[in-house]
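Lab notebook: predicted structure, single chain.

Context: the supervisor wants predicted structures on file for every construct in the current expression panel, including those that have not yet been purified. This is the next one on the list. No modifications to the sequence; it matches the entry in the shared construct table.
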Amino acid sequence: MKLVKSLLLGSAAGLAAVAGAQAADLPVKKAAPVEYVRVCSTYGAGFFYIPGTETCLRVGGRVRADYIYVEPEGPLGRVDDSIGFRTRGRIQLDARTATAYGLLRTFVRFEITRDTGAFNGVPGVVNTNPNVDQAFVQFGGLTAGRALTFFDNGDIDAQTMQGVRWSDQPNVNLLAYTFSFGNGFSASLSLEEGRYSGRAGLAGDVVGEGAGLIAGQRSPDVVANIRYAGTWGSAQLSGALHQLRAMPRVAVIGGVPGVVLDDTNYGFAVTGQFNFNLPMLGAGDNLWLAATYADGALGYLGFGGGNPIEALYDVNGDIETTKGWQVAGGIRHYWTPEIRQNVFASYAKVEYGSNAIAAPSDFNEWQVGTNILWSPVSGLTLGAEVQYINRDFDTAGVDNDDFWTARLRVQRDF
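Prediction complete. Output recorded below exactly as produced.
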């Protein structure tokens, strides 16, 4: 047995030696290097390098749930929904690359909103709305795509749920360039899609002459601003030029036949918007103010959906623009690092021309509200808001609007 055991062990040792020699003669393939995701701290928290590139990417999003109660208006209020439910989901990507020509940035934000009840304004209707909220490219001073209008001061974060009457930072399709002068000063010139509150007065009846047509858009809204930003906050002065066009028509006006109606006019808007940090009151405290005057461009006051009408024909067949102005503001105070309160208000005035045909009533509107927001953990916000809205019409027999709303919100940002 000892002899057999010795022969087996010797054979195994010989085979192992031969195999080792052959393995030593084979080419050795190196393992592929493992590329780990690296944190990119250049642009703030949440960015990481896309493997194999020098591009930093941040993936974020939001889920928001809102619940609203709107006080019914008058005896016909039974027709309208008083409660409403809204759920909104958001996904966004922010990619940034440092180049020899400056920062190259691409940003895209998708939102899907599902509204029912009072959020729709039409009883029994469920509205699901997919939306490209923002999608733009920035390269140096160039901005192209869908982004915050350059009419507004992007530093203002009103943190209202319902919103008060002001331009309210809408996102629009645009092509813009920003000139930076240093020391916090800059100026921008932007070509933007038209912002409309309604031009029905240019397409409706003119003394029984029948309906006309709104003419096609020939010029974008031209927006320009000058801005200063410092440690105390920021200030921005902006202006916008807005084209009004209708199909040319011939009408009977004042008993005179063959009057050619004006088919092109221009409106404008100017605004001053200010954002102030208030560290003397508390960390994170803030005050904002916005004042705007518009002539034939009431969309820049925060109105939309065809009410009010931004221009009407007058008794001479000319386009007569509607004028209006607004002032809005709010203050934010942190009672604790987790609990903050916003108080906000706005006042707006709209006046139709004295010679405008079939003009609606002039009116003024004021809104006031407050909310309490609690963030028990980072990224989570629980809040409640109440708001009062009053609209007074100058024409006798036209009922004034006077109602309040209440809203609850649960929101998670990541």
